[in-house]
Amino acid sequence: MNMQFRGSPQQASSVHAKTAIADCDIHPARATATELYPFLARRWHEHLETYDRHQYQGMMDGPPYPKAQPNAARRDAYPPEGGPQGSSLSFMQQQHLDPNNVMLGVLNPLATGQGLRNHELAAAICSAVNDWQIEKWTSKDSRLKGSIVVPNEDGPTAAAEIRKRAGDANFVQVLLLSRTVEPLGQRRYWPIYQAAEEVGLPVGIHAFGFGGNPITASGWPSFYMEEMVGHSQCQQAVLASLVLEGVLERHPTLKMIMIEAGFGWAPSLSWRLDKNWRRLRSEVPHVKRPPSEYIRDHIYWTTQPMEDPERRDHLFDVIDWVGWDKLLFATDYPHWDFDEPSRVLPPGVSDANREAFYLNNAKKLYGLA
Amino acid sequence: MTSPIAGGVDCDLHPAVPHLTSLLPYLNDYWRDQVTTRGMTDLVSQSYPANSPISARPDWRPAKGKPGASLADMRAQALAPFGVAYGICNPLFGVQMVFAEDMADAFCRALNDWLVKEWLDKDERLRGSIVIPVQSIEKSVAEIERCARDQRFVQVLMLVMGDMPLGKRAYWPIYAAAERLGLPVGIHAGSSYHNPPTSVGWGSYHIEDYVAQAQAFQTQLTSLIAEGVFARHPNLKMVMLESGFTWLPSFLWRLHKFWRGIRMETPWVDRAPLEIVRSNIRFSLQPIDAPDDPATLNRLFDHMQSDELLLFSSDYPHWQFDGDAALPEGLSPELVRKIMIDNPYATYGRLKEKAIKETTP
Description:
The complex is a heterodimer of chains A (369) and B (361). Chain A has 369 residues and is of the alpha/beta class. Chain A has 13 helices and eight strands. Chain A has a single domain, classed as TIM Barrel, CATH 3.20.20.140. Residues 1-17 of chain A have low confidence and may be disordered. With 361 residues, chain B is an alpha/beta fold. In chain B, helix 3 (101-118) runs parallel beside helix 4 (137-148), helix 4 (137-148) packs parallel to helix 5 (172-180) and helix 11 crosses helix 12. Chain B has helices spanning 29-37, 71-79, 101-118, 137-148, 172-180, 206-227, 229-232, 248-262, 273-280, 294-304, 333-347, 349-359, and strands at 8-13, 84-89, 126-131, 153-161, 185-191, 238-241, 281-284, 310-311.
């Protein structure tokens, strides 16, 4: 998390920043409220203007917890031509992709149809966002790759959207948000995993979203900070559900990516799952191996916000436990808690691990090697 | 196996109420009548189904009745083998699930009185936690004040999953009372089930709920720190019971990072979360969510950057370890002494007072 938003790229760069990197978490935004309209049936324009999006949360405009910055994004990331941060390809190229030598940028649109209570509207918006990613971004800059966003609460429709995009090289993953109506391992979501495995795409699960459940098991907390920290607890519940419902057992070739939820908690959660699985496995006979093995075989982790202990040997311990081959570098551009590429990894890392961390793991996972 | 040393404190023992009817002698006429007339059944929380493998070790399971219901068994299976000077009783009886505050209050009073008569009066090593009707802050404070007159109550007990995040200001009178009376607040695994056990709703399985307890402790620590409980009550100690602790280092890295980034939102948080945890928060030793190899565990202890955070616990009669292996392999004698003796005495002030009295002629 770099709070020095106004530092110039020259000052921030180092020899490593010049090395080509993959950024596995970039957030493209719409410049105007109506930017999706060309990809949406006329019916939905009127619907949105009359009834708005009708989410699993109460606020008509803005999130339940006010962000730290407008749009949760860097103040220096407003495009000169106007519009919110992340809404201009040319400014994204100029501010981020070019100076940081991003050779692969994975787009994770957050304002999609996920978390809308009207599932038909959700499906229409998701499909429109997918078309929009091609039209505005991936067809204009070959470094950028899209994520298939899906109306996740409606499994069969979500699966149909994935199959519709099968083989389209504009997309490198299916994207879900973590805050769902039920834990993501539940049956209602199984068609999504079936379709993703079938078309050979990994499933990314990005922190955030709205599912109507409070972010703690004791109701709604007070502060944005609690929501931000809480995303990692939410992701732990999501991963536990995926393992314990047998999703990873049933889909042996499915890869999943935990995006923007941390990875430092993965060893402890794996050990806790293993310990309890040994005692309670008669309850979950469909989970055939120790949970840690599924996690090790199936799960990748994006790095931002980077784990940041006082001592670097503690960081290296955790990465050793998670696996240097499982981390995917990400900046979260243009969000305020952006990780500056040259400052994320402390000294003392081998060249092979450094290259895996910044680029090679992503190229391999996304089939772009 | 690392051997326990004599004179320690077992900070997490679970004496079981045999049945709701066991509390009848401790209820007034009105509530005794309510229980019998309305055919109320036992308040057993689904956090610990009686026959679940983790609810009791196979060799600690009695031939009949609930595990943990017999004092003789607790003496033979926990107090004697681990050689403890004190054992702190944390009754897990589903009073928190009740929705009506008057009923919860009646059951809590009965439960606390039952603990005194059936356990504390019968074994000098035993100490108690005050179970409170969290459904009413006012009644909780009154129950703390009522029970605290008995010095054998050394802690206030709450569950980690309840109606509101524990840092919320509504709860602060409870913390003020606890601080004033020198009682740590113990937060134990378990739920009132008034909210789903995860932030994405209800999972399918018992194992899922149990694993989720650790996430609930994490969100509660965030709440307690963010709301400023320890800025207002700097002398308040809280003990996370049956929480696990191997998640703590990475949790604190993340919390610290976001606190640095967004501290303008909570300006009353006057110290770094790391410092607050080191001065005000403690954790029971069991469960140890880590591999058996001492090398990894010792790395985790190093990540915690303090040898003062852990308090010895057997979690009797729950199944956390086999045989006498309450202490994991590879602990140094210094750390064993810290965990079994020094840290519990530093946390539970009422134990220390008692110890001083005993050594004074």
